[in-house]
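Morning F.,

Quick status update on the modeling queue. The single chain you submitted on Monday has been processed. Sequence for confirmation:
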Amino acid sequence: MSSETSAPVRRGRAASVRRWVRRRGWTAGVWLLLLALIGWYTTLIPEFGEFEITSIAKNSLPSVYLALAQGVVVISGGVDLGAGGLMVLSNSTAAALMEGQPPEVTVLIALAVVAGAALLNGFVGWVIAVSRIPDIVVTLATLFIFTGVALMVLPSPGGGTSGQLRYAFTGSTTGIGTNFGPSLIAIAVPTLLFAAWLTRTRTGLSIYAIGSDDHAAYLSGVRVVRAKVTAYATGGGFAGLAGVALTAIANSGDPRFDNAVNGTLNSLAAVVLGGILLGGGVGSVVGAAGAGIIFFTLSPILTAMGIDPNTAQVVRGGVIVAVMVVAGLLQLRRWRTQ
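Structure tokens below.
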């Protein structure tokens, strides 16, 4: 190859690399940060092996699913403060209905809970789209409604599920073991399929479009109300899946309001750290999933460092605040450059 022809090839490759970094660099950075944190964690404990990998993978499942739930709503230009409440409601409902049931029935109940959560949150999205009431107002109300209903369904922690359903999420019928394969599959498959659906289908692209500019999307022929409802319904389905995963991990339901609030705050922080702009239209749910694991991994790392639980909570809160501040500054910069 002559120098005249090799120069354009090199420039083309450099341009391709720049495009890849611009589109996927943040997502790759999030997963590299996760690997770095896990690497650091291995130096803080006496032994790191299959049990620790399994523990991280299975216990981060609810955080990952809730990050996916929040991510699709934020991409659509909204925010779902009720995501944690829907997770708690799904967890309580699943645990109450699954207790003492055979495996086949628990699987059907799990599917029904996920479908019900999707329909319920889809209705919330329809109310927001039709009424034009800000998302933050409607979903703040749903946070209290969902957790209140959860307390009605399961007044105190309890319930249960089948060993087979526990195996699907934890790799063990008892929820404790060293088989991390099912948990990793439960993270990777939904995340990658969801990301492909969002970026490669007309419906998924319409969600990105209304997040970027719903008026321009409408003029381009996008059905804005349908896209908004789809975003919320999909997010609701993942929040329901997070609740089912909680049931499988703990073999019980827990309707406490604190779980709902913590879930919502962590999902918002994971979405921002994962590279999804709070203004909507930009970002990848793959990054949000990685950030969800990061926020879970902080807890065992802080424990291994000998930090007491109260101080650890302060540290986690400080990290969330810092992430939100950075997100606000990035959003402000985006508005000024438009």
